[in-house]
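Homework help board

Subject: predicted structure for assignment chain

Our instructor gave us this sequence and asked us to write out the predicted structure in token form, then describe one feature. I got the tokens but I'm not sure how to describe them. Can anyone check?
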Amino acid sequence: MDSLLYREESFELMQDMAKREKYLSYQSIIYNAAAEMEMGRNKSEAAIDLLLKSNAANSNDQAGRSFNNLKIATLAFKGKNYKLAKTYYDSLGLIPK
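My token output:
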């Protein structure tokens, strides 16, 4: 039980950090880490929302955005949200036309 409480507190702390001006340059990384925590707790919808926030905060790292898009597509596909999965798989440009 203690580890569950610790994980919840850590998650809330990361959410608070992402909103602070002091950590704005790390916002994408913080949201990505929070998304990983949510994936570990099988909260796919929350993870997708956090990955979208990570992408929105990320203006420089195209590889990071692509990696997030792959995670979003995979989570959406597992959750049977095929339209969202298609959108994010297509954004990767992995399939030749």
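Reply (TA_rk): Your tokens look well-formed. For the description, you could write something like this. The chain has a mean pLDDT of 86. That's the kind of observation they're looking for.
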